[in-house]
Protein backbone atom coordinates (compact mmCIF):
# COMPACT_ATOMS: atom_id res chain seq x y z
CA UNK A 1 0.00 0.00 0.00
CA UNK A 2 1.21 3.37 -0.80
CA UNK A 3 0.86 6.28 1.57
CA UNK A 4 -1.60 8.84 0.31
CA UNK A 5 -1.00 12.48 1.06
CA UNK A 6 -4.02 14.72 1.22
CA UNK A 7 -3.48 18.37 0.37
CA UNK A 8 -5.88 21.22 0.41
CA UNK A 9 -7.06 22.50 -2.91
CA UNK A 10 -5.49 25.56 -4.40
CA UNK A 11 -7.43 28.73 -3.98
CA UNK A 12 -7.30 32.23 -5.45
CA UNK A 13 -7.17 33.64 -1.96
CA UNK A 14 -3.82 31.98 -1.39
CA UNK A 15 -2.29 34.32 -3.98
CA UNK A 16 -3.30 37.50 -2.12
CA UNK A 17 -0.74 38.84 0.35
CA UNK A 18 -1.84 38.49 3.96
CA UNK A 19 -1.32 41.02 6.69
CA UNK A 20 0.64 39.74 9.67
CA UNK A 21 -1.42 39.90 12.83
CA UNK A 22 0.57 40.59 16.00
CA UNK A 23 -0.89 39.00 19.09
CA UNK A 24 -0.60 41.32 22.07
CA UNK A 25 0.38 39.50 25.23
CA UNK A 26 -0.92 40.65 28.61
CA UNK A 27 1.68 42.35 30.81
CA UNK A 28 3.96 40.00 32.74
CA UNK A 29 3.05 39.29 36.37
CA UNK A 30 5.05 41.27 38.89
CA UNK A 31 4.65 40.56 42.61
CA UNK A 32 3.40 43.32 44.91
CA UNK A 33 6.00 42.28 47.48
CA UNK A 34 9.00 42.74 45.20
CA UNK A 35 10.24 45.99 46.83
CA UNK A 36 10.13 44.46 50.33
CA UNK A 37 12.05 41.38 49.15
CA UNK A 38 14.74 43.58 47.65
CA UNK A 39 15.05 45.49 50.94
CA UNK A 40 15.31 42.24 52.93
CA UNK A 41 18.10 41.04 50.67
CA UNK A 42 20.11 44.16 51.47
CA UNK A 43 19.85 43.62 55.25
CA UNK A 44 23.00 42.27 57.00
CA UNK A 45 21.29 39.24 58.54
CA UNK A 46 21.30 37.33 55.26
CA UNK A 47 24.70 35.61 55.74
CA UNK A 48 23.77 34.24 59.20
CA UNK A 49 20.19 33.30 58.48
CA UNK A 50 20.66 29.54 58.99
CA UNK A 51 24.00 28.87 60.65
CA UNK A 52 24.55 31.92 62.84
CA UNK A 53 27.11 34.67 62.42
CA UNK A 54 30.04 33.95 60.11
CA UNK A 55 32.71 34.95 62.62
CA UNK A 56 32.33 33.03 65.87
CA UNK A 57 34.99 32.81 68.55
CA UNK A 58 36.79 29.51 68.19
CA UNK A 59 37.32 27.72 71.53
CA UNK A 60 40.87 27.43 72.73
CA UNK A 61 42.64 24.05 72.43
CA UNK A 62 42.84 23.76 76.23
CA UNK A 63 39.02 23.86 76.54
CA UNK A 64 38.15 21.17 74.01
CA UNK A 65 34.78 19.45 74.24
CA UNK A 66 34.93 16.32 76.38
CA UNK A 67 32.60 13.34 76.46
CA UNK A 68 29.47 13.85 78.67
CA UNK A 69 30.56 17.39 79.57
CA UNK A 70 27.23 18.94 78.51
CA UNK A 71 25.03 16.46 80.40
CA UNK A 72 23.37 17.81 83.56
CA UNK A 73 25.15 16.71 86.72
CA UNK A 74 23.11 15.06 89.48
CA UNK A 75 23.26 16.53 93.01
CA UNK A 76 25.22 14.76 95.72
CA UNK A 77 23.37 11.95 97.53
CA UNK A 78 21.88 12.87 100.88
CA UNK A 79 22.60 10.52 103.76
CA UNK A 80 19.66 8.19 104.33
CA UNK A 81 18.67 6.00 107.25
CA UNK A 82 20.30 3.01 105.53
CA UNK A 83 23.73 4.61 105.80
CA UNK A 84 23.60 4.55 109.63
CA UNK A 85 23.49 0.73 109.75
CA UNK A 86 26.46 -1.44 110.40
CA UNK A 87 26.09 -3.03 106.98
CA UNK A 88 24.31 -0.47 104.78
CA UNK A 89 23.28 -3.06 102.17
CA UNK A 90 21.67 -5.47 104.67
CA UNK A 91 18.24 -5.13 106.21
CA UNK A 92 17.80 -5.21 109.99
CA UNK A 93 17.50 -8.73 111.50
CA UNK A 94 14.12 -10.40 111.98
CA UNK A 95 12.88 -10.04 115.60
CA UNK A 96 13.00 -13.18 117.71
CA UNK A 97 9.91 -14.91 119.13
CA UNK A 98 10.49 -13.60 122.63
CA UNK A 99 10.59 -9.94 121.56
CA UNK A 100 7.41 -7.99 122.24
CA UNK A 101 5.91 -5.85 119.44
CA UNK A 102 6.13 -2.08 119.90
CA UNK A 103 3.00 -0.64 121.49
CA UNK A 104 1.26 2.65 120.83
CA UNK A 105 1.69 2.75 117.05
CA UNK A 106 -1.47 4.08 115.39
CA UNK A 107 -2.27 4.25 111.70
CA UNK A 108 -4.97 6.08 109.80
CA UNK A 109 -5.82 3.03 107.73
CA UNK A 110 -9.22 1.48 108.50
CA UNK A 111 -8.71 -2.26 108.18
CA UNK A 112 -12.41 -3.11 108.55
CA UNK A 113 -13.39 -1.02 105.54
CA UNK A 114 -10.56 -2.38 103.43
CA UNK A 115 -11.57 -5.98 104.23
CA UNK A 116 -15.25 -5.25 103.54
CA UNK A 117 -14.31 -3.72 100.20
CA UNK A 118 -12.24 -6.73 99.22
CA UNK A 119 -14.85 -9.36 100.14
CA UNK A 120 -17.75 -7.88 98.13
CA UNK A 121 -18.62 -10.03 95.16
CA UNK A 122 -19.64 -8.59 91.81
CA UNK A 123 -23.32 -8.77 90.94
CA UNK A 124 -24.23 -11.31 88.25
CA UNK A 125 -24.67 -9.84 84.78
CA UNK A 126 -25.92 -11.01 81.43
CA UNK A 127 -24.31 -10.00 78.16
CA UNK A 128 -26.94 -9.11 75.56
CA UNK A 129 -25.04 -8.56 72.32
CA UNK A 130 -21.86 -9.76 70.69
CA UNK A 131 -20.42 -6.29 71.26
CA UNK A 132 -20.55 -6.87 75.03
CA UNK A 133 -23.54 -4.83 76.22
CA UNK A 134 -24.05 -5.78 79.87
CA UNK A 135 -27.17 -5.71 82.00
CA UNK A 136 -27.83 -6.76 85.59
CA UNK A 137 -29.14 -10.31 85.68
CA UNK A 138 -32.10 -9.34 87.92
CA UNK A 139 -33.34 -6.74 85.44
CA UNK A 140 -32.88 -8.99 82.40
CA UNK A 141 -35.85 -11.27 83.22
CA UNK A 142 -33.74 -14.42 83.23
CA UNK A 143 -34.03 -14.87 87.00
CA UNK A 144 -37.44 -16.06 88.30
CA UNK A 145 -37.65 -13.55 91.13
CA UNK A 146 -41.46 -13.76 91.67
CA UNK A 147 -41.33 -17.50 92.34
CA UNK A 148 -38.78 -16.98 95.09
CA UNK A 149 -40.90 -14.46 96.99
CA UNK A 150 -42.21 -15.64 100.36
CA UNK A 151 -45.58 -14.00 99.72
CA UNK A 152 -46.07 -16.19 96.65
CA UNK A 153 -45.50 -19.38 98.65
CA UNK A 154 -47.93 -18.17 101.26
CA UNK A 155 -50.67 -17.70 98.63
CA UNK A 156 -50.13 -21.17 97.23
CA UNK A 157 -50.39 -22.84 100.62
CA UNK A 158 -53.78 -21.20 101.37
CA UNK A 159 -56.78 -23.23 100.03
CA UNK A 160 -58.65 -21.91 97.00
CA UNK A 161 -61.97 -21.26 98.73
CA UNK A 162 -60.32 -19.04 101.38
CA UNK A 163 -58.53 -16.80 98.89
CA UNK A 164 -60.28 -13.60 97.94
CA UNK A 165 -59.06 -11.14 95.39
UniProtKB/TrEMBL annotation:
Q: What is a GO molecular function of this protein?
A: calmodulin binding
Gene Ontology CC, one term: acrosomal vesicle
Q: Which domain of life is it from?
A: Eukaryota
Annotated region (Disordered), positions in chain: 41-105
Q: Which InterPro entries match?
A: Enkurin_domain-protein (IPR052102)
Composition bias (Basic and acidic residues) maps to: 71-86
PANTHER family per UniProt: ENKURIN, ENKURIN-RELATED
Can you say what this protein is called? Enkurin, TRPC channel interacting protein
Tell me which species this is from.
Neogobius melanostomus
Amino acid sequence: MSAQVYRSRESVYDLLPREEVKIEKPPRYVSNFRPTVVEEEKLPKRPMRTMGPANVEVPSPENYLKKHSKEPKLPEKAKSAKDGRIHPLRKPPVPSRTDHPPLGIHTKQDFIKTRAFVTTKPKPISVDTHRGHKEALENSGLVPKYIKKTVFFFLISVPLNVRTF
